[in-house]
Amino acid sequence: MYGEGFLGLPSFSSSIVAIATAVATIFFFWFLFKKREIHPPKMPTAIPNNNTSTNAAASTSASSSASAADLARNYEVFLSFRGTDTRESFTDFLYTYLVGAGIHTFRDDNELRIGEEISPELLKAIKESKISIPIFSKNYASSKWCLLELAQMVECHVNEGQKIFPIFYDVDASDVRNQKGSYEEAFRLHEKKFDEKTVQRWMDALRTVGQLKGYELDKETNGYEGELVKKVVRNVLLQLKKNYTDVPDELVGMDHHVEEMTRLLHDDSDGVRIIGIHGMGGLGKTTIAKVIYNQLCKSYEYCCFLEDVREKTKHQQDGLVNLQKQLVSRILKVDLPAIVDVDDGINKIKDAFHGKKVLIVLDDVDEKSQFDKLVGECSWFEKESKIIVTTRNKGVLNALEVTCIKKGLLQAYKGYEPELMNDYHSLQLFSKYAFMRDSPPEDYYILSKKVVSTAAGLPLVLVVLGSLFFGNEDKDLWEEKLRELEKIPNEEVLKKLRISFEPLNDRQKRIFLDIACLFTGQDQANPCYMWDDCELYPRNGINTLILRSLVKVGDDNTLRMHDQLRDLGREIVREENFNEPGERSRVWRPEEALEVLKGGLVCSKVSGLSPGICVCFTFTALHIARALGAPWFVSPRESALEGEC
User: Fold this and answer.
1) Quick one: which H or E segment has residue 156?
2) Number of neighbours of residue 199 by Cβ within 10 angstroms
3) Per-residue CA distances from 560 to 262, 395, 485, 589, 622 (Å)
4) Of these residues, 4, 128, 149, 491, which one is catalytic?
5) 325-359 residue pLDDT tens
6) pLDDT value at position 157?
7) Which residues neighbour 506 within 8 Å (Cβ) at sequence distance 6 or greater?
8) Mean pLDDT for the chain?
9) Which of 368-378 are b and which e, b meaning 16 or more Cβ less than 10 Å from the residue's Cβ?
10) Which helix (H) or strand (E) holds 437?
11) Residue 131 Cα distances to 94, 103, 331, angstroms
12) What is the pLDDT of residues 173-190, one digit of tens each?
């Protein structure tokens, strides 16, 4: 999964030759670094994403009846109630809370209607709603309009599977079901005014809804209306999946991640738990967080998924304040609050979180200060609260862990680094996007395996490549595109991975580019001598690259880099001059390095060559020394190699 180095020396029969060649190569690079200044290319400024998501605004003003414009819209919830009983009390409270939670709710005052039938607009509102909530009060059955609405709800429930959540406000469910008490009295009057078929339809509707599982105010919450409203809204959100985040249908290999995350989230501790998901870009961190969030949100009344924290914080005006507004709005289920500045937002968040068990996901955090200004401290939350953070920068999570330890919360933080996809899941994910099936057709199997191998287990690349090859049946084009991918990485993939490169300082960028072009697979001790001498402070630089998931150091002290990150670094250098390798800061292909040295094309920009064994044996040390202006450069072997290398 990780690329082989271009500087590695093959095994020779003579160990003396191998050792001497390695020494010569080290001196070669050392002098190059001393003589040349490394100028990594300037990165293009990221284009800010202006797509912001806002919650639906709650309208608390009471309207006498729904307007024609309102009725033309699609609703999620339809409220049916007797206005004289609950219009200004329970129904208004429920309506306000539903709308505040972002639920498009229809509320109509049936007391002001005229005519004998439900209007087409009202009928449309009932039919298109996903959930109907009849609020049964003592005088509900005395209104023909309420009964007409109820009969239509039952018809939609039976024929189209529409959900009905009955609320038995100040009546028993058995009275509604069997038409007893005030409902019996109401039907005595209806039997005198309406035909038998109409009355029977209403009675059947009451019987059907009375048998459904509903909410009885006295039994559910001992008469506390506020608590009942919260229960109803929570269930509506669950049914509508309002708190859910969009997850691709083509998920592959997710079970293992879910098991690991579940284990970390649900240990013996009942305190606040912070889980950090870290790793390189394109690893699927956000997707894992979304899947876990969707599984857990049904158990939390207060939950919020804040996406693209890094992007919105750095590239949008008042981005952090807007994220604070979004968080408070989702937790309190109100319209976006007025927040003056970040400090004001911190105070409002602290007040909003107080005494609440929350589920919060902060996606793509790259600085601890972002966490501090959005979530604050564990002490703000109720026990069993869960906070999930995704990041490319493990340094953020290390700082969080230190903070938790200082506050005595030894078990509060846990980290998780997803592994790269194995070959089987890689081929399956690619096939889902390329062929809309779990495996490639037999005649495309070998080609698909070759394409998949270029992704080296990175889910982002597999999705992009699958989409790229979708619908393309020309095998010659497949072969050509494959050859192109082996030399020039996909632009969409590079754009995503480049996000991790941009925050590095100049010294760290130089080290990253050196590793990508010259030192992948090499013992880090060798280039560290040169980086030290060039005052690049390599130990700190390499540590930063490791924390940002750009580099790994193996057990044998070798520098390792994912193939796609290696290709990113090389493409950045290639952009310095697409046509002339000698005009780039680094030359990593042996054949290009050979041409550069043969033609005396080493210019002031070249700071590193990867000549491999060919150059070491094709040119005498004197030739190299003269080309570099280093008369003291000594080679263990001064002889030209005849024939092929």
Assistant:
1) helix 144-160
2) 16
3) 30, 19, 21, 18, 33
4) 149
5) 999 988 887 777 789 899 999 999 998 888 889 99
6) 94
7) 40
8) 80
9) bebbebbbeeb
10) none
11) 14, 11, 23
12) 999 999 999 999 999 999
- Torsion angle defined by CA atoms of residues 194, 196, 197 and 201, in that order, rounded to the nearest 10 degrees: 80
Return the sign of the alpha-carbon dihedral for residues 618, 621, 622, 627: positive
Token pair 């870009």 is found at: 281
Q: Which residues of 209-220 are buried (b: 16+ CB within 10 A; e: fewer)?
A: bbeeebbbbeeb
> pLDDT per residue over 58-81, tens digit each?
333 333 344 444 444 578 999 999
640 Cβ neighbours under 8 A, 6+ residues apart: 617, 618, 619, 620
4 in Cβ contact with 520 (< 8 Å): yes
Q: Which whole-number Å values give the CA distances from 62 to 93, 292, 299, in the listed order?
A: 11, 39, 32
The token pair that represents 65 in the structure block: 């009846």
DSSP class per residue in 444-491: GHHHHHHHHHHHTT-HHHHHHHHHHHTT---HHHHHHHHHHHHHS--H
Q: Helical H runs in 171-222?
A: 173-178, 182-193, 196-210, 217-221
Checking if the pLDDT of 53 tops 70, the result is: no
Tokens standing for 355?
């005494």
Give the span between the Cα atoms of 27 and 15, in whole angstroms: 19
| Distance separating alpha carbons of residues 291 and 312, to the nearest angstrom | 22
Q: How confident is the model at residue 545 (pLDDT cuts 50, 70, 90)?
A: very high
Q: How far apart are CA 391 and CA 365, in angstroms?
A: 5
| Residue type present at position 345 | G
How much is the pLDDT for 636?
30
pLDDT at 1 > cutoff 70: no
326 close to 306: Cβ distance less than 8 angstroms: yes
What does the DSSP 8-state code read for residue 42?
Answer: P
- Contact (CB, 8 A) for 572 and 489: no
Contact between 90 and 169 (Cβ < 8 Å): yes
Give per-residue burial for 142-171: e unless 16+ CB within 10 Å, then b: bbbbbbbbbbbbbbbbeeeebbbbbbbbbb
- Are the beta carbons of 446 and 308 closer than 8 angstroms? no
Question: Of 92, 464, 414, nearest to 276 (Cα)?
Answer: 414
pLDDT of 415 over the 60 cut: yes
Ramachandran angles phi, psi of 215, nearest 5°: -120, 120
Task: Report whether 303 contacts 330 (CB < 8 A).
Answer: yes
User: Which amino acid is residue 55, in one-letter code?
Assistant: N
Backbone dihedral angles phi then psi of residue 561, each to the nearest 5 degrees: -145, 135
Whether 149 is catalytic is yes
Which amino acid makes up residue 589? R
How far lies 641's CA from each of 15, 593, 598, 612, in Å? 18, 16, 14, 13
Q: What is the CA radius of gyration of the chain?
A: 33
Q: Which residues make Cβ contacts (< 8 Å) with residue 500, sequence separation at least 6?
A: 280, 281, 392, 548, 549, 550, 565
C-alpha 290/C-alpha 364 separation (Å) is 12
